[in-house]
Amino acid sequence: MKIAISGKGGVGKTTISAAIARYLSDKGVRVLAIDADPAMNLPGQIGVEIEKGFKPLSEMKEFIEERTGAKKGEYGGFFKLNPKVDDIPDVYSLKKDMIKILVLGSINKGGGGCFCPENVLLKNLLSHILIERDEWVVVDMDAGLEHLGRGTAKNVDRLIVVVEPGMQSIKTAYKIRELAKDIGFENVWLIANKVKGDDDIKFVRMSAQDMPLIGYVSLSEKIKEAERLGVPAYDMDERLKREVAKIITVLQNL
């Protein structure tokens, strides 16, 4: 299954993305976790420490030049529109148990859409992963969905928006749904995070209207403690594991 997870900054989508990947890995399932959020927090939440000097794929200029044929700084010149990408997930990923982690970095918006080598490489890579790879894929995205185009979006099985029990978060979910429609997504599902009880769940269901709620993660002092310590929440909170297990079951039965 190929899952893209989005949401407003700070709602906890990276925590949930990482927990999904970790739970599947614990069950012996191969997972490719894609960090497509500029904050690049997914490796740490999975339990992989990024070494000093680490660069996401979008900033590996020599590698981009090698694959696309583009010269550094020569935007507007000729470069390959179909660069070789099939080896990238296996060669350039970070690893944790059954999980491979690819850190994409930012898509260059360039004043409304930059047609440049790094963008072409990343979008070709994501398209290859979603179409060709035979494993669970979890993509941790920002709210803008820049990494997904119409050609790649059709290969995502589920687009999930993580929300908090608050109107700002719900409004962001509506904006993400509009962006999703522009690239061909008809359905968007929600996961509620930082839930205190039934009233929060009712609020999300009523506010979200036609965006179905498929699960929730409880507000947790253990998750807050994990954030303070800089360790994966998945290693601190057994309840998180149980709630993520329920979410995965629902995903598989949608």
The count of helical stretches stands at: 10
Q: For the CA atoms, what is the radius of gyration?
A: 18 Å
**Strand order in the largest sheet:** 3-4-2-5-1-6-7-8
Q: Would you identify the regions where 5 or more consecutive residues have pLDDT less than 50? A: none
What would the principal axes of the Cα set say about the shape? globular
> How many beta-strand segments?
8
How far the N terminus sits from the C terminus, by CA atoms, comes to 12 Å
SSE ordering: EHEHHHEEHEHEHEHEHH
Summing up helix and strand content along with how strands pair, one would put the structural category as alpha/beta
Main beta-sheet annotation: 8 strands, mixed
Beta-strand residue fraction: 15-25%
On the 0 to 100 scale, the average pLDDT is: 91
Provide the helix percentage: 40-55%
What does this structure look like?
The chain is of the alpha/beta class and 254 residues long. 41% of the residues lie in helices and 18% in strands. It is built from ten helices and eight strands. The chain has an eight-stranded mixed sheet, sandwiched between helices. Strand 6 (158-163), helix 7 (167-182) and strand 7 form a beta-alpha-beta unit. Helix 1 (13-26) crosses helix 10. The chain is globular.
